[in-house]
Structures are given as C-alpha cells and as structure tokens.
Design goal:
The structure is a homodimer of 308-residue chains. With 308 residues, chain A is α/β, with parallel strands linked by helices. Chain A contains eleven helices and 15 strands. At the A-B interface, helix 7, strand 15, helix 9 and helix 11 of A face helix 7, strand 15, helix 9 and helix 11 of B.
C-alpha cells in the first residue's frame, strides 16, 4: 500500500459565517489533509504538534481513520495552535480575528519510523524551515513531494521558501499567491515562472472558480462543483490537497494524465468539505457519496465533440 | 442547411486597454455573433440598423462570410450606434466613456424574407420590445430561441423583459446579471429561479472563469481557455453566443448533450476573440486554428476516472 506523509497544523478553529458560528472546533491543515486522504487506500501519518489542551477524542478521530498519529507531538503544559476567523457575506474573503501559534511556534517535526520512505510527502502550509527539515529526514527522494505555502512566507522568509521549492515536485497555491510570487497577472505566465523556480507541476487553486494544473506546455482545469450553498469554506484548500495527494499515493502513478484524476478527486472531496462547519462533513462522509459526486463531476465536464 | 437569425447591434466601438487604444472600429453584438457563427455551416442573417456613416467595406466583410445583410437597414442621414470604453488593468472591468444610441434608438427590426422560418434565433442584447417584435415576426416557433440581455433592461424594462423571457428557450447572461435578476447569490439557485421564469436552459457567463449551462437538475461547465495574455475582452460574450447558436443551427440537434458541445464551441471561439482588438482576430481566423484549439479544450477538461 502507498505511504503518505502529511506535515501541517493540527489545531483549534473558531469560525463565523453568515450562517452561524462555532466555538473552538477541530481544525488545522494536516487534519483536513488526513481526513481527505483517508478516503483512499493509503497508509498515512501526520507530523504535527499540539498542546495537552488538545482533546484525546480528536486524536482518536484521526486514529480511527487509520492515520498514524505517532508523529503528533503533545507538549506538556503547551497550548494548541488556534485560529479564529469571520467570513464576509459572499464567503470569498474573510478576516482573521485571532492567530495564536502556541506550540506551533517552536515546532520541530520528527518523521516517524516507517514513514521515512513515504511514496508521497504532503507539506502543508508552515514555515519553510519546518518543511525543509522534513524533506531532509527522508531516506530517499519520495516519488512525489507536494508543497502548500502562503503569502506570509513569501513576505517574510523568501530565501528559505526558494530553497524548499527547489526540492519539491508540485506546488499548490492560490491564484493571488501565484501572482504575488511571480509578479505576473496571467496565471499561464505565473505558472511558467514558478516551474523555472523548481517544481515541475504547479497547481493553482481558484476557490469557487476551480483549480488549474500546469506542467510544461500542458494545462488541466477542474471546476469547483456548483453548489446550492457554500456553508463554510474553511479547510477546502487542504481537503483538495488531501484528495490530490491521497489519490496519488494510492495509485503510485505520477503521470500527468493521472494527476488530472488527482485534481478531480481533490475537487470532489473539497465540494463536501464546504457543506458544513470545519471537519463535520468529512467525518461522516461515505464512499458511495464520494462516488456519486465523481459521477456529477463527469457530467459537469465531459463532452463529446468529434475531431478529425 | 440550418438557418440562424441574428438580431443585435452593428456598431462602431472605440476601445482602450492597458495594451493600446483604437479609433472607431467595427463592433456590435450582431457583428461578433455573425462572425463567430460563420465558422459553421449555416445560412445566417443579421437584423440590425446603421447610419449612412457606416462603411460599405464593413458590410462587405459580413457579406463575404455568407451572412445575409438584407435585414440591416441603412438610415439616410443617420448615425451608427457608437460605444467607447476603457478597460481597467486586470481587464475584468471597464468604464463606458461614450454611448450614442443614434439610429438604434428607433430601431424597428424587419426579419428578411427567407428567415421567418429560421431554425435558431439569436436575440442579442437590445430593448426587450425589439426582441419581442422579432419573435412575433417568426412564421412558427423556431427550434431554439436564445436571448442575451443586461442589467440596464432589468432596471428599466422589467415587465417587457419578463414577457420576452416567457417565449424563449435559452437565456445567456453573466453571473452578476443572474444574481440581480433573482436576488440569489448562489448561481445554482439563480439558475433554478430563472428556469421558473420561462427559459428551460440557462447559460451563465463568468468571463475568464468560464460558462455554466443549467437545465433541470443538470449542470455543465466549460472553462475559459487559460491564455498568456488577454488583449481585449470586447465582444467575447457575443462571440461565445455566436459559436453556441451557430453550432446548434448547423447541428439542428437541441439535446442537452449537444448543447454541451455548443458551450465548448462558443468558449473556443471566444478564446480567439480576446487575442486582438475588436473583430481583428475573428476576421482572420482559420478552420485549422479552431480545430487545434478544440483539441486543447479536450486536453484541458477531459479525464479518465473509472467508476463502478
């Protein structure tokens, strides 16, 4: 079975949308990635850190889905990373109300025994030095290393980020970040510039407008499934990354053609994530729901023009 | 051969983009629709009005493409509709600097003999009473009637617009207009409400974010082709409509499955339109370019996930 190593935050989120608000609930990039990846036949492990305020029941949720949590360090007396945000009416933008790094501020990732030879490494959005530390702990170069990052690291740790970017295969960022990174408005030009920086594959996430995959002169596009209502976008990008990396770890086929499928699998799972607060929907998601919606993606995008 | 009747403006445009500016050049919704439709094997005619300031060479351009122009009235001493606009840096929004309706203000459309039995009628963005007049001149209900409109008519002639909408099959509007028309932010909900108003098919154009086709519980999505550079978006929506209606008039197959192909054909032609100012690119477009780019659309969207 393919092995997937996930590095990222395991956290508390508090979310407010036009539809309601939550108290502190389960969140974090690695959590969403892990839950999405658990829809595939993979052996996965999360490397992260929490405080001893983090409920054992949340860790049990992950372990119940066959995610190895031995790499989640629990800091005695420490507090877990906490993010609080409020979405605007159209759900396309949000204000961050609270960011408490807490134990994540001094996070020293330790890759568990048995995952130093992972097939796929999914580096969630974190300080580039943490991402680099994980890369350096791998026994050999993984079949595929995927990186998420954000504007904060571009602003504050550009050199460190560039060093990491040279060692990965796929970068997954949003459209604004791709533009900031390259000073190019055209996403086609931005993706070409990013490929010159290192990663052979560039995934640009456009939220409700879908996701693009670039590789050399090839482009693939997956729409977001049009939904009656988006309830809470939190975690959608990480769920996309989890579906993408989980599918590729199961398939162990890293061709461009198969990456197209991975983009669709990621988009498919993200479409569930946004239907409820936080991880709620992902925690109860059933296999037949996933497959039915993949069928909807086919109906949504496949056509039959005969060409000579 | 399928017959396509096109109603809309034939006009002068003056355009400014970050890449340059033009003087008065050939423009108008019916012009772009006609040029796009001429890529298909159809007999098409334009119903419109111009002043005698309108160059014969422009009319010749249309006639050279086998477009029947006997329905383009030339008003002696009249001036042709003139629009001048300036695009913002991201090309997603623009300011209208000049709108002179001129001869279009008193436009009384006359459907030419030989087109009262058209298979497909494409009603470009005009006063709803003009659109209704054309509908009423048809000998029998066409196989398909497609309507474009805009926020101005929603604001000023709502009742007249609602009367027209009950008599058409497909409405093609942009996302902001769909939201204004229904007071629904979700495009899925907006499309459902619009179907209750009359048209069985709703096309929502999202510019650089593609186009959606809704029919009952079915949804199809076509992306815009990611381009290195969009040079001038003027006419892209009309070119899309021209490709959509031209393809359906040629095929004379109005199934949902075939409408998917029509959406792709429209998106494909629109991707050329934006590469140069105004009609420039469409006037020199070659068949093999159209087919090569259709292949790109396939690569961009088609995937191969096996489902049980």
């Amino acid at each position: 079975m393919g092995k997937l190593l996930i590095v990222g935050s395991v956290a508390f989120d508090a979310i407010e949308t036009p539809f309601g608000k939550t108290g502190k609930i389960l969140g974090g990039a690695a959590t969403f990635i892990g839950l999405a990846a658990s829809q595939f036949k993979v052996k996965s492990a999360i490397v992260s850190v929490v405080g001893d305020d983090f409920p054992k029941s949340y860790l049990d949720l992950l372990e119940d889905r066959n995610i190895d949590i031995s790499g989640i360090e629990i800091i005695k007396g420490g507090k877990t990373f906490y993010w609080k945000g409020k979405y605007h009416n159209d759900l396309n933008s949000r204000d961050t109300l609270v960011t408490e790094l807490n134990t994540l501020a001094n996070f020293n990732p330790i890759v568990p025994n048995g995952f130093m030879d992972a097939d796929v490494v999914m580096l969630g959005n974190l300080h580039p030095n943490i991402q680099m530390s994980v890369i350096n702990q791998m026994e050999k170069r993984p079949k595929l290393t995927i990186l998420d990052t954000m504007n904060y690291w571009m602003d504050n740790t550009w050199d460190e980020l560039m060093a990491v970017i040279q060692k990965i295969d796929v970068i997954a960022i949003n459209d604004a970040e791709a533009r900031q990174m390259t000073q190019e408005y055209s996403l086609v030009k931005a993706a070409a510039k990013i490929q010159e920086m290192g990663p052979k594959y560039v995934v640009i996430k456009k939220g409700e407008h879908g996701a693009l995959l670039f590789h050399e002169e090839h482009i693939f596009f997956a729409p977001a499934l049009p939904l009656e209502e988006v309830f809470d976008p939190t975690g959608a990008g990480d769920t996309f990354a989890g579906g993408f990396s989980g599918y590729l770890a199961e398939a162990r086929n890293i061709s461009f053609e198969n990456m197209k499928n991975a983009i669709i699998q990621g988009s498919n799972l993200a479409s569930f994530c946004v239907e409820r607060f936080g991880t709620e929907r992902m925690l109860e998601l059933q296999r037949h729901e996933v497959e039915n919606r993949l069928m909807q993606f086919k109906e949504l995008t496949q056509f039959n023009i005969e060409l000579n």
